[in-house]
Write a structure and sequence with these properties.
Helix content: 40-55%
Radius of gyration: 53 Å
Shape: elongated
Largest sheet: 3 strands, antiparallel
Strand order of the largest sheet: 3-2-5
Distance between the termini: 181 Å
Strand content: 15-25%
């Protein structure tokens, strides 16, 4: 090329500048709109995870503002879709009921070791989740819940004797522990304790053995008292039975003649001989003798005067409730006097008849 030839400006331009100028001057307005929309869409897609956040069921969200005052304690995000600035952050807290199982080694009032196994049901207060995050943090179980639970159990156990713990109602013990936990200022308004369950309460072996022996002796004492009361009732029953038998024989005394006894003996002999079982009937040798099984001296009994017949109309049976007690209870003023006056001396038929018929006149 000679110096006189004209110079081509497009050929002398760098390649990059030519492409930019081509895009700038060759793109239509619609093409520019599509390009801008694509760029904005990509930016939005990239910012969605940092702008939109989903709070799952049973949780709340605590907002942390990066460019302002930090943790938001006035409100919390609830379940569902929520929006925030990309540079802010949300911390989620589960507000469902949780369970903490603990085995506590405590000392009773007298210094004996007691092992208690408990389960604590608790949950964070949803509206105060921001304060919980600001003052305690995510590990609030180790920082607040566990120390409060251990301290409450040891405090309540330390005020009781092992014998009291053995007899105490479980619900009462759980209520006292729960009341102690509710009074703790560290968790007040931040964590709500729903219930405390005492799963097991282990006392020392020596204490368990001594308490079991004591309870066994108490049961034995109650059993002896029952046997004594049963014997007293049996004595009263036999006393009433004796009065009834005496009254019966007094009424039928004139009917028990030797001829009647002989006839009853013959009937018994006939029934014995008709029995299908194996037997041996030995008949007496004399004319007035009965079979040997019934005795042979009935006809030779001396003639004794018949006892007096008691008329059941004029001499009714006594009122059993009005009879003096054989074993009066302690504090009964007339028990001892009634027992001494109502007793019957051996061989004293007059007193026995009078006891059997308190309304009869003395003859």
């Amino acid at each position: 090329m000679s110096p006189a030839d004209p110079v081509d400006d497009e050929a002398s331009e760098p390649q990059k500048h030519r492409i930019v100028r081509h895009v700038r001057y060759r793109m239509s307005r619609s093409e520019k709109f599509i390009a801008v929309s694509l760029v904005v869409g990509v930016i939005v897609l990239l910012l969605i995870p940092f702008t939109f956040i989903i709070i799952p069921a049973g949780h709340v969200g605590v907002l942390y503002r990066l460019l302002r005052h930090g943790t938001e304690t006035d409100f919390v995000y609830h379940e569902g879709l929520n929006i925030k600035w990309p540079f802010d952050r949300i911390y989620t807290y589960e507000v469902r009921t949780k369970t903490l199982d603990e085995s506590v080694h405590a000392l009773a009032r007298d210094g004996l070791s007691v092992q208690v196994e408990i389960s604590v049901l608790y949950r964070p207060v949803p509206d105060n989740a921001g304060k919980l995050h600001q003052e305690v943090g995510y590990d609030y179980v180790d920082r607040v819940v566990r120390p409060i639970s251990l301290g409450a159990v040891r405090d309540i156990i330390g005020k009781c004797d092992p014998h009291d713990l053995y007899r105490i109602n479980v619900e009462e013990l759980e209520g006292r522990i729960l009341e102690k936990m509710h009074g703790s200022p560290a968790a007040k308004g931040l964590i709500f304790f729903e219930r405390v369950v005492v799963r097991d309460l282990d006392l020392p072996t020596t204490v368990n053995d001594s308490i079991n022996r004591k309870l066994t002796e108490e049961q034995n004492a109650q059993a002896y008292k029952f046997l004594i009361a049963q014997a007293q009732d049996e004595a009263e029953r036999k006393r009433i039975e004796a009065i009834g038998i005496q009254t019966f024989y007094s009424i039928v005394a004139n009917s028990l003649t030797p001829q009647l006894l002989t006839w009853r003996g013959i009937e018994a002999t006939v029934q014995l001989s008709n029995s299908s079982n194996s037997k041996i009937v030995v008949v007496g040798g004399g004319k007035d003798q009965l079979p040997l099984i019934l005795g042979s001296d009935i006809a030779k009994q001396p003639d004794l005067p018949a006892p007096k017949v008691i008329d059941p109309q004029s001499h009714p049976l006594p009122q059993w409730r009005d009879l003096p007690k054989l074993f009066p209870k302690a504090g009964d003023a007339g028990g001892a006097a009634s027992e001494s006056s109502g007793g019957t001396a051996p061989g004293d038929e007059t007193n026995v008849s009078r006891a059997a018929n308190p309304g009869a006149k003395q003859r």
